[in-house]
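step=encode ok
step=design start
structure_in=
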């Protein structure tokens, strides 16, 4: 069978985030071809995408197949299936990749997918905006998730910050807790519909990509008692954005969501921005202008703060907290001692 190489590579790229880093589950580092689709599964997420004109049933090692196709020069490749391998021909080049005819991925754990319902227009935006406040402490796994409610509220929190986003539209399914690692993969997809499963939530794109994610089953913490903050308003200087760009050079972490800078304000209204990582450190001072200031300090992700600044969000410092308020969101940080 002949197939357009670019379309096949695109399908494989779409499902790659569903591959496991290590094969703790059999075939979790493989592409599984079944029913005219290519599927990946790593116990946390499963992604499937249709592949036209591809009549293959079985699983092949993902890394070798993806790399081989990428290095072949012809626009079309010819595939042939034997009992034990997929044979690929491109020009004068030939290769055989071991094919496991039996698909052993535990896809039955995903269960049935119910009726598809249109997602709220702001859902991905809200999940991306709130994920910065998720915890990385697995001793409290519920805090490593983004909480989405039927009322359209999307929120997250850890030991020192809370973010809440209120969507205009309600969620068409029940509440769910989605791990932050899954959120980081999901927001790269232009999903349009959602379906509720048992222990799983499913998303679908216009191109019929299905992104299934395991949800965390627990009761989320009640955040109402910490949402109110009263105190002095802060108007950040116009040059803060460019300072943040410089500070971000030395805020690098293994995961970009963990990157932080420290902001300190002294009684004279001087604001110091500081960052530090294994490569070095950065420090710069600017001024807030006239006013009565208390000595405060807090840490925040520089990308997230730049997003807040672009929205001209009011900021209040008081009650041992810093509160930023937008049109449809609130972000609260605990002050450092």
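sequence_out=
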């Amino acid at each position: 069978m002949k197939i357009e190489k670019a379309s096949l590579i695109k399908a494989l790229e779409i499902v790659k985030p569903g591959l496991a880093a290590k094969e703790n589950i059999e075939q979790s580092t493989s592409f599984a071809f079944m029913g005219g689709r290519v599927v990946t599964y790593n116990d946390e997420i499963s992604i499937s995408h249709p592949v036209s004109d591809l009549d293959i049933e079985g699983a092949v090692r993902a890394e070798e197949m993806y790399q081989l196709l990428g290095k072949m020069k012809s626009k079309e490749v010819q595939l042939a299936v034997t009992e034990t391998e997929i044979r690929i021909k491109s020009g004068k080049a030939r290769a055989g990749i071991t094919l496991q005819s039996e698909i052993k991925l535990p896809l039955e754990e995903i269960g049935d997918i119910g009726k598809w319902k249109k997602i709220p227009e702001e859902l991905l935006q809200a999940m991306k905006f709130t994920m910065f406040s998720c915890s990385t402490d697995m001793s409290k796994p519920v805090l490593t998730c983004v909480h989405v409610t039927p009322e359209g509220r999307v929120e997250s929190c850890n030991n020192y910050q809370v973010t809440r986003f209120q969507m205009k539209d309600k969620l068409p399914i029940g509440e769910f807790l989605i791990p932050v690692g899954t959120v980081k993969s999901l927001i790269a997809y232009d999903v349009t519909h959602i379906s509720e499963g048992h222990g799983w939530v499913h998303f679908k794109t216009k191109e019929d990509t299905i992104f299934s994610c395991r949800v965390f089953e627990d009761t989320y913490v009640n955040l109402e008692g910490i949402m109110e903050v009263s105190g002095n308003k802060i108007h950040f200087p116009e040059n803060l954005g460019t300072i943040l760009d410089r500070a971000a050079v030395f805020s690098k972490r293994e995961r970009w969501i963990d990157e932080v800078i420290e902001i300190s304000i002294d009684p004279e209204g001087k604001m110091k921005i500081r960052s530090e990582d294994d490569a070095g450190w950065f420090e710069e001072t600017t001024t807030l202008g006239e006013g009565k200031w208390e000595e405060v300090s807090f840490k925040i992700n520089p990308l997230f703060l730049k997003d807040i600044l672009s929205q001209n969000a009011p900021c209040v410092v008081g009650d041992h907290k810093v509160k930023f308020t937008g049109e449809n969101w609130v972000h609260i940080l605990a002050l450092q001692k």
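step=design ok
step=annotate ok -> The CA atoms of residues 60 and 197 lie 28 Å apart.
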